[in-house]
Amino acid sequence: MKTAVSIPDDVFASADALAKRMRVSRSALYTQAIEEFVARHRGDRVTERLDAVYEGQASELDERMARAQRRTVECDW
Fold first, then answer.
1. Burial class (CB in 10 A: 0-12, 13-18, 19+), 4
2. What would the mean pLDDT of 34-61 be, rounded to a whole number?
3. How far is CA 34 from CA 14, 21, 30, 61, 72, in A?
């Protein structure tokens, strides 16, 4: 898909120089950059969904579980 975007001159110059060093087109460089950015933020939706699922539920440990956990930690020392 062909699209037009506006970016600051210094960002364009840096991207252009990087594309030349990598011997790829600017389009290829922009595509790779956007793919990496989108992949990095893909997990955000998972976190939001999990937050919604567990919203309103207590997050404290049951007292028996807390004692068992303390005993386990104490044994490691």
1. exposed
2. 84
3. 16, 19, 6, 41, 46
**In the chain, alpha helices (H):** 9-22, 26-54, 63-76
pTM, to two decimals: 0.56
**Encoded tokens for 59:** 């997050």
Domains and CATH numbers, the chain: 1-55 (1.10.1220)
Distance, in Å, from the CA atom of 61 to the CA atom of 18, rounded to the nearest integer, reads 51
Among candidates 70, 74, 52, which has minimal Cα distance to 61?
70
Identify the pLDDT of residue 29: 97
pLDDT digits (tens, 9 = 90+) for 61-76: 788 888 888 888 776 5
- Rounded Cα distance between 67 and 48, Å, is 31
